[in-house]
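This entry is listed as follows:

___
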Amino acid sequence: MEIDEEKHQETIPKNPNENIIRERHAEIVSGGNVFYNPVQEFNRDLSIAVLNVYQQRLTKERCEKALKKQRKQVNEPEATPPIDTPPTYVAGTQYADGLRILEALAATGLRSIRYAQEIAGVRQIVANDLSRQAVQSINANVQHNKVEPLIEASHADAMTLMYLSTAQEKRFDAVDLDPYGCPNRFLDGAMQCLVDGGLLLVTATDMAVLAGNAPEACYVKYGSVPLRMKCCHEMALRILLHCIESHANRYGKYIEPLLSVSADFYVRIFVRVHVGQAQCKLSMSKQSWLYQCTGCDTYTLQPLGITKPNPTAGNPQQLKYGIPTGPAVNTQCEHCGHRHHLGGPIWSAPLHNPDFVKDLLQAVQETHLSELGTQRRIVGVLSVVQEELPDVPLYYTPDKLCSVLKLEIVPMLKFRSALLHAGYRVSYSHASKNSLKTDAPPSVLWDILRCWSKRHPVRPERMIPGTPLQAILSKACTRDYEFDELHAAANPKSRRSALSRFQTNPAPHWGPGTRATIMIGENKLPKSYRNQNKKQRHKTSQEAAGPQEGPVEAEEEEPETEAHLPKQPKLEAATA
């Protein structure tokens, strides 16, 4: 697992400005030349919780599989003694039958050290990094935290390491990819080095690309075209899931999303990767194209494939695959008459596994995981995830809907009550505090707003022909909607309990950070502030140093006034 070691025999000078970073029971000694971001503690805590629950489920599955194989060998009937209780594991101890985990981009090794200390049932953790400085930091930190039996440091290219681990005895039970930016280059190798049913943990921090600011770049990286919508953060999750699924299908594998979270400046996805050619055929029906109206922002999904029961087959569970007819929309929007943008394909199947989320929430509340530093936030996010409608992709926001019609914004509880009284389901999305995820068709949403406009009418001068406002409000309401009587389910339990559902900015200058930088203290000052007016300040320093040697023609210069002086960056305001 070493690369070009002969070329790098010189030792790296010790940095005198070492920082001791403490997170839970782990301590990291770093001189500031390896990447660390404290804002990602939520990411690490959530990953530890997911891996603990996954390990328990995997152990139970393996026990059931072994018992079933044993019964088959001795020809015992299925309805014999119950399954033995799975063995219990303790965190910080090495087990021969435990998890083998790969952290492909380990940096300081903090995540791997915390995995070793806080995940029960671990066999080995491989902490890999391409940087020799990072690998030296990993070795020092592993020794400092006394977890040498569990962690093996690796100095290799992450893709090469994963491709060299495709043999059955070298594969990993879990692969954690937390790169700086886009993870797409690592997905192919991760699919090949995972065991059947293995867990893949993926982070993507290039949210500007995933959210629709650069659709051409998103297509190159993820094979999907994003649209600029209010639900861009959930769309980012679905684009990444589509990308992971497409990589899995190449090797006869498919994914099962356990949990998909949009948090802070990144998206984090936890999926199990299974082997199964038959299940791969369902992949086409889990992807959809997306039509977005350029006038009123109404969106419509069209699946790439459809499935239906095969009546001619003897097995009632056998499916017949087909291609849907389309397009799902007319040339012009049925609501406002404008044309459509086309985006996708995106993952349109559920983002989460409800049973897994339920077990995870229970574990974070009732077990040793309740001591995690961001436990309160994890409970809040998982509670909202549990309340989400699993079969409704994407969401609207009342402020965007009302801005199209220049209306006073409908209060969230009133909007939710109107939908619930009309017989539709509605929920929040964990990705936005103003989200409105509902199975009601867009025509019902616009009809509700037409009814709302009777109470809060639009000024007549805004009714301009050809605008979405005029096209939608010129139609009559089909029915009356109840706004005043609050529906019992309008205020969800997570909101009533005042859980920490949607996190505010955790710290000044929070974000993905700078490569190979400890994002604490003065090091977290962004490059954009440090480099502001950099050329002008350099020119000023040269002028202050005096003329260069050699004959220089004298030029008549105007006296410098305050207006001619270059503006200095306001670092004090930036760091306040």
